[in-house]
Design brief:
single chain; about 675 residues; 6-stranded mixed sheet; about 45% helix; about 20% strand; elongated
C-alpha cells in the first residue's frame, strides 16, 4: 500500500509543478516591480499568460492524461493476461479448497477431458492431498499422473492483498489463492526408466546338490546330465539377451539387463522347476539357487549384492531365487526340501574354528531365542560342555523359563556338578561383559527374537549355530556363522561339533538327555526333517548316557495343557480344503506358546491336510505356530507375517492385533500363496 501511495504522490507532483512555477514567476514579477514599475508592467502580461495556461493544463488536460494512463494500464494488464493465457507452461489459480478458478490455455488443453467449471484439483490429481493445499511454505511439490501423462505439480500460495495485509488475512484463512504449475515429466521419466532398464544386473547360479545328483546316476550318463543342465541354464539366460559363464562345475555367473527382472519375477524363475525336470535315470532331482544383485552404485557392488543374495538363498535351504535390490530383499521358490550333506567336513572345519575362538577368550555367554524350547536349552548345554572342556567359564542366558523346559533345567539347578551361576538373566550377563567375552547364539539367527538382543551390541566376538533358514534379518557382526537348514535341530549340530572340537570330551547323562530331548522334540519323535546324520547324532548321545525313557517322562504334559491342546484340535477350522486353522486358549497355561506348537503338530496327523496354523494370545501378543509335512513351505508363509523358521516348522508374532484379525491375515497369506503357486 505504501508503494501505491508513493507512486500516486510522484504523479501529483509531476502534474502540479507548473502551478508552483507560476507562483515563482509571480514573485519574480513582484521583485522586478520593486526595481522598475515599468519593467514589471511589461513582464506582467507574460506572467499572467503563463499562469492561466498552467491552470488550464492542470484543470482540463489532467483528466485526459489520467485517462491515458488508465488506458495504458488496461492494455498492459491485457498483454499480461494474454501472456499468461498463451504461456506454454500450464498454469492455473485455485482456492484453498482446491477448486480451479482460472486456468490458461495450456492447462485447459490438459484438462479437456474434465467438463464444467467446478472441477477440483483434488479430483483431477488424486495424489494431491488437503495437506498440500494448506501449505504455508513457498512451494508444495507433488508428483502426479493424469491420463497418459506424468506431472510435477507445484502449488504456491498467492495472497490478494500486499505483504502486510496478507499476514492479517492469513490468520482468518481468507484472501488466499493457490498458483498451480504443471511440469510434464512424462518423457524424462521414460528416459530414466529406459536408462534403468539398460543397467546390467549381476547374478550367480549354484547347483545345490550337484555331487549327490551325479552319484545317483550311472557313470556313463553323468556327462550327459551335466550337459543338459548347462544347456538349460545357458538357454534360459540367452533368452534374455544375457551372458552366462561357468565358474566351477556347479557354479555359474551371469549378466542380464535390468528390464528382464520383471519378467523373471512374473514367471517366478521358471528355471527352478525346469532344472528339476532333467531326468536321465538320476534318482535325485537337481535343484539350484539363484542370487541377483541390482541397483548398486557400481557393477562391483551389484556383484557383491549377488554374493550376499546367493548366500541368503543357500542359508534358506536352496531351491530358490533371492533378489537383493539395495536394502530390499525378495524371495522366490523354496518348495523343495534341502537334503542333508553326506560329508561332515564342514562340521569339522566349523568345530576347529570355534575352538580357536574359544581359546582366545576367558568367558562364554550362551544364548538362545526368547521363550526357549528344549532344543535351545539342549544346544546351550552342549556349548557349555565344550567351554568347560577347554577350561573356560561359561553361562547360559535365559530370561524366562517355559514349562516344557523347566523339568530339564531342574536337573541342573542346585546340582553340585554345575556352578550356581550356570543360568543367568540378560541383565546379569550384561554385567559380566568385557573385552574377553564371547557370545555363542544357538537355535536362532534373528536378533529380534533372541532372549537378550542387547548383548549383540555389547559383545564383539559372536558365533552363531542354527538350523533355521535365514531371513533378511541376520546377525551382521558374527565372526563365525554355522547355519545349516538341512539339520534337524541345533542339538544335532552341536553334537557333531562336540565330536570334532577336541579329543576325549565326555558329556554327562543329564547333558546327553538335554541334547537328545532337543532332537526328539524338533523332529517330532524322528518323523520330521530327519536324516542319516540325525540318527548318528542320536546314537552318539545314547552311547554317552542319554536315556529314552527318562527323556519321555520329562516331556509329559500337565492335564490342563493336554486339555487345552485337545480343545484347540477340536476347534480347528478347515480352510481351502487343505489347511487347518485353530486357536489355543492361554488361560491357565504357564507356556501357551509350547501348547500352541504341540497342537499344530497334532493337526498334521489329519489326512488331506497340507499345513496347520494355531494361534494363541499371550502377553498382549498373538503367537502363530505353523507346521507342514512337505507340500507347503510354512517358513515363507510366516515371513509374510513378519516371522520365519524352518520349511516345515515356523512361527510369527503379531503385535497390536486381535485373534480374529490374526486369523484373517493368515487366510490372506494362504490365498496369496495359492495364487502364486507356492503350494505344491
Amino acid at each position: 500500500m505504501k508503494d501505491k501511495i508513493r507512486v500516486r504522490g510522484q504523479l501529483n507532483i509531476y502534474l502540479t509543478w507548473p502551478l508552483w512555477l507560476s507562483l515563482f514567476f509571480l514573485f519574480g514579477n513582484f521583485a522586478v516591480a520593486l526595481v522598475s514599475v515599468r519593467g514589471a508592467l511589461v513582464l506582467f502580461p507574460f506572467t499572467l499568460c503563463y499562469v492561466v495556461l498552467a491552470i488550464c493544463i492542470y484543470r482540463y488536460r489532467r483528466k485526459r492524461m489520467l485517462g491515458g494512463l488508465v488506458e495504458f494500464s488496461a492494455e498492459y494488464a491485457w498483454i499480461q493476461r494474454q501472456l499468461l493465457e498463451d504461456m506454454e507452461l500450464p498454469y492455473a489459480l485455485a482456492d484453498c479448497d482446491g477448486k480451479l478458478l482460472w486456468m490458461n490455455r495450456a492447462f485447459k488443453d490438459i484438462m479437456k477431458a474434465e467438463k464444467g467449471n467446478s472441477r477440483s484439483l483434488l479430483s483431477v490429481f488424486p495424489e494431491v492431498t488437503k495437506t498440500d493445499l494448506m501449505t504455508e511454505k513457498e512451494v508444495s511439490r507433488v508428483h502426479a499422473t493424469y491420463g497418459n501423462y506424468k506431472f510435477q505439480v507445484d502449488i504456491r500460495p498467492v495472497y490478494v492483498e500486499g505483504p502486510e495485509e496478507a499476514s492479517e488475512q492469513l490468520l482468518s484463512g481468507e484472501q488466499k489463492l493457490l498458483a498451480v504449475y504443471l511440469f510434464d515429466e512424462t518423457e524424462i521419466l521414460r528416459y530414466r526408466q529406459e536408462i534403468t532398464n539398460e543397467k546390467l544386473v549381476a547374478g550367480l547360479i549354484y547347483l545345490d546338490n550337484y555331487d549327490e545328483a551325479l552319484e545317483s546316476v550311472e557313470e556313463v550318463r553323468r556327462s550327459l546330465l551335466t550337459a543338459l543342465i548347462d544347456r538349460k541354464i545357458n538357454k534360459y539366460i540367452s533368452s534374455m539377451m544375457g551372458i552366462a559363464k561357468k565358474l566351477e562345475k556347479d557354479k555359474y555367473f551371469f549378466v542380464i539387463k535390468q528390464k528382464y527382472i520383471d519378467q523373471l519375477q512374473e514367471e517366478r524363475f521358471s528355471i527352478l522347476e525346469d532344472v528339476k525336470s532333467v531326468n536321465i535315470g538320476n534318482e535325485m532331482a537337481v535343484t539350484l539357487s539363484i542370487g541377483i544383485g541390482m541397483n548398486g552404485d557400481s557393477y562391483i557392488q551389484n556383484y557383491d549384492y549377488s554374493r550376499a543374495a546367493i548366500d541368503m538363498a543357500l542359508g534358506r535351504g536352496g531351491d530358490q531365487a533371492v533378489i537383493k535390490d539395495g536394502s530390499r530383499i525378495q524371495y522366490f521358490g523354496g518348495k523343495a526340501q534341502q537334503l542333508e550333506k553326506a560329508t561332515r567336513v564342514k562340521a569339522r572345519v566349523k568345530a576347529h574354528a570355534l575352538r580357536e575362538l574359544i581359546e582366545t577368550k576367558d568367558r562364554l555367554l550362551i544364548m538362545g531365542h526368547r521363550l526357549g524350547d528344549i532344543d535351545s536349552f539342549g544346544s546351550s548345554i552342549g556349548i557349555y560342555r565344550i567351554a568347560t572342556a577347554l577350561n573356560k567359564k561359561s553361562h547360559i542366558v535365559i530370561n524366562e523359563v517355559t514349562s516344557s523346559v523347566q523339568p530339564m533345567i531342574d536337573r541342573f539347578v542346585n546340582n553340585p556338578d554345575y556352578p550356581d551361576d550356570l543360568i543367568l538373566t540378560g541383565a546379569q550377563a550384561a554385567e559380566l561383559v568385557d573385552g574377553n567375552t564371547m557370545l555363542v547364539v544357538v537355535d536362532v539367527n534373528r536378533p529380534s527374537i533372541m532372549d537378550a538382543p542387547e548383548l549383540l551390541r555389547m559383545v564383539k566376538t559372536i558365533v552363531v549355530l542354527d538350523h533355521h533358514r535365514q531371513s533378511s534379518e541376520v546377525i551382521g557382526n558374527a565372526v563365525l556363522s554355522y547355519v545349516e537348514p538341512y539339520a534337524s535341530s541345533a542339538c544335532e549340530m552341536v553334537a557333531e561339533v562336540l565330536q570334532y572340537i577336541a579329543d576325549g570330551i565326555k558329556i554327562k547323562a543329564a547333558e546327553a538327555d538335554a541334547m537328545y530331548g532337543g532332537i526328539v522334540i524338533d523332529t517330532q519323535n524322528f518323523t520330521n526333517q530327519t536324516g542319516v546324520r540325525t540318527f548318528e547324532a542320536a546314537a552318539w548321545l545314547r552311547r554317552n548316557g542319554a536315556d529314552v525313557t527318562r527323556v519321555r517322562k520329562l516331556f509329559r504334559d500337565e492335564m490342563v495343557e493336554y486339555k487345552a491342546k485337545a480343545a484347540a484340535v477340536a476347534a480347528a477350522e478347515v480352510y481351502r480344503e487343505a489347511f487347518l486353522i485353530s486357536v489355543c486358549s492361554s488361560e491357565g497355561l504357564h507356556s501357551p506358546t509350547i501348547v500352541c506348537a504341540q497342537a499344530a503338530n497334532e493337526l498334521l496327523e489329519i489326512r488331506g491336510i497340507k499345513a496347520s496354523v494355531v494361534l494363541t494370545d499371550y502377553q498382549n501378543t498373538i503367537y502363530v505356530s505353523a507346521r507342514s509335512i512337505d507340500e507347503v513351505n510354512v517358513q515363507v508363509m510366516m515371513e509374510l507375517l513378519g516371522g520365519g523358521g524352518h520349511r516345515t516348522i515356523a512361527g510369527a508374532q503379531l503385535q497390536g492385533a486381535t485373534i480374529e484379525e490374526a486369523k484373517a491375515r493368515v487366510k490372506e497369506v494362504i490365498d496369496q500363496m495359492l495364487e502364486k503357486g507356492d503350494v505344491s
